[in-house]
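Budget justification aside, the reviewers requested a transparent look at the raw inputs and outputs of the sequence design task funded under Objective 1. We therefore reproduce one unedited record. The lines immediately below are the structure tokens for a 509-residue chain.
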């Protein structure tokens, strides 16, 4: 009887288990998860993450301080202002970029690469991948590239570092192949593309414009190769009209990722609510070098870029603007702090302000350099320089129609292009203009300055600086890489040079 009872109970349990397993998969499937990732959603996220990667740390404190757009009296946050070393700031872009934007865009490519019908989405993703990686390698030099973003797909957790030379040549190849393969007759990302709404002709122009930027980056290390890529980019067709500008559009909430990272990142960390210029957390101000140049040239962009707090509002009149000197340590009083210019919170630091990724102001000025080199003969360097200035003035209208500067004649008359000058004099003028026109995109300004040396900035020599009083040439690798990926990092350092702020990257040699 006991044996029969045990068998009976066992049978009931077995039957119950069989009945349960019948719906086991359905019951244990998370209704809020997806089995196959949506490439449209991930692409949108990669665009957002590609632009909001530690904006304040990288663009303001590091690049913006070094290039004397920004200044601070504080020592801990004066890494770029005073050429100091703080791992929190110099590693931030690397540490955040790989797990977010880099991983996301590679995921999109992996999802799309085997479907010929998805060729437009695939090639737009390839172009955006170039944008993400060129920003990374420009800051650090040799970085993980061919083996990056393979931890999930290939269980490869310790990627090798590729040389910047290899990376740059591959990025240019990718731009060429992707632009050529784009087909207006096929579908695209549509509204999932937050920059161009999937517009294929505009992505093609963006690709060739990025090729122009990267091609010129090679002028010091390989002029012949630079010329090849610059002429190819021009022949392909770059952005020359404001309607083709690459802009990331933002809204004022409801979440921070919907907001302009230049505004939300900077205003949440330093230029905080109710500080009104008197008690900025990191002591940030616009630099005296920058403000002095704008005032000396009667540049009308000064009122778009900057403002001085008077009470609870910013006065943007040119005559009241005053920059803070780089390399100082003595803190001013709260009242004194308020007398110095800060970025205009009604324009460049507005939460819903667009962010310029690449515009006709930049391309026309780069074309002016190409003309000065004799690589482009359809227009003169003078005409292209003036087109670049006019484009920058008109592009102020992205902050609102009233900000567009429609008449550049007074400025160009007072600051004429030196068409009869030497090549170096022309380079100085063209790239000093880049330094002004691309304000907010401090990473690109920093890279372009390292290539050209213009404008000619006077370095500071703050006590205890780590560069012997010279402007840094790159950012150091994160400390975590020394323990996690030490062997591959060691190979990169052996090839590139010591992991210091003064070691020059491949294209900067």
């Amino acid at each position: 009887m006991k044996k029969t009872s045990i068998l009976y109970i066992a049978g009931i349990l077995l039957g119950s288990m069989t009945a349960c397993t019948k719906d086991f998969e359905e019951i244990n499937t998370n209704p809020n998860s997806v089995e196959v990732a949506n490439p449209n959603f991930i692409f949108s996220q990669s665009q957002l993450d590609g632009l909001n990667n530690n904006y304040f740390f990288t663009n303001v404190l590091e690049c913006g301080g070094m290039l004397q757009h920004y200044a601070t009296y504080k020592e801990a946050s004066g890494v770029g202002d005073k050429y100091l070393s703080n791992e929190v700031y110099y590693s931030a872009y690397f540490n955040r970029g790989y797990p977010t934007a880099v991983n996301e865009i590679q995921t999109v490519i992996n999802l799309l690469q085997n479907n010929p019908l998805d060729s437009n989405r695939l090639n737009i993703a390839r172009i955006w991948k170039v944008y993400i990686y060129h920003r990374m390698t420009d800051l650090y030099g040799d970085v993980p590239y061919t083996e990056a973003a393979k931890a999930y797909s290939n269980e490869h957790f310790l990627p090798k570092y590729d040389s910047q030379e290899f990376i740059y040549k591959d990025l240019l190849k990718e731009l060429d192949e992707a632009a050529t393969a784009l087909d207006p007759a096929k579908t695209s990302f549509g509204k999932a593309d937050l920059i161009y709404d999937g517009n294929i002709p505009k992505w093609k122009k963006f690709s060739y414009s990025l090729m122009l930027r990267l091609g010129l980056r090679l002028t010091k290390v390989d002029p012949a190769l630079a010329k090849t890529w610059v002429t190819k980019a021009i022949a392909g067709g770059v952005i020359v009209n404001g309607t083709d500008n690459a802009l990331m559009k933002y809204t004022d909430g409801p979440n921070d990722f919907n907001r302009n990272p230049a505004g939300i990142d900077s205003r949440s960390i330093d230029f905080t609510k109710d500080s009104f210029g008197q008690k900025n957390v990191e002591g940030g101000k616009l630099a005296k070098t920058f403000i002095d140049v704008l005032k000396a040239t009667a540049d009308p962009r000064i009122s778009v870029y900057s403002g001085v707090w008077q009470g609870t509002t910013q006065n943007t009149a040119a005559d009241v603007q005053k920059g803070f000197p780089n390399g100082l340590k003595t803190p001013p009083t709260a009242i004194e702090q308020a007398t110095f210019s800060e970025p205009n919170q009604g324009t460049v630091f507005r939460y819903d302000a667009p962010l310029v990724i690449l515009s006709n102001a930049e391309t026309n000025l780069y074309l002016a350099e190409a003309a000065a080199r004799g690589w482009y003969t359809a227009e003169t360097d003078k005409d292209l320089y003036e087109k670049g200035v006019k484009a920058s003035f008109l592009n102020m209208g992205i902050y609102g129609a009233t900000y567009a500067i429609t008449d550049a004649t007074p400025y160009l008359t007072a600051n004429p292009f030196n068409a009869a000058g030497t090549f170096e004099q022309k380079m100085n003028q063209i790239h000093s203009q880049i330094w002004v026109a691309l304000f907010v995109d401090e990473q690109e300004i920093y890279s372009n300055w390292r290539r050209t040396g213009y404008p000619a900035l006077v370095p500071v020599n703050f006590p205890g600086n780590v560069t012997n009083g010279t402007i840094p040439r790159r950012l150091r690798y994160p400390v975590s890489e020394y323990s996690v990926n030490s062997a591959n990092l060691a190979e990169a350092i052996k090839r590139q040079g010591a992991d210091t702020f003064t070691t020059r990257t491949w294209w900067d040699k």
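The radius of gyration is 26 Å. The CA atoms of residues 27 and 423 lie 73 Å apart. Computational costs for records of this kind are itemized in the attached budget.
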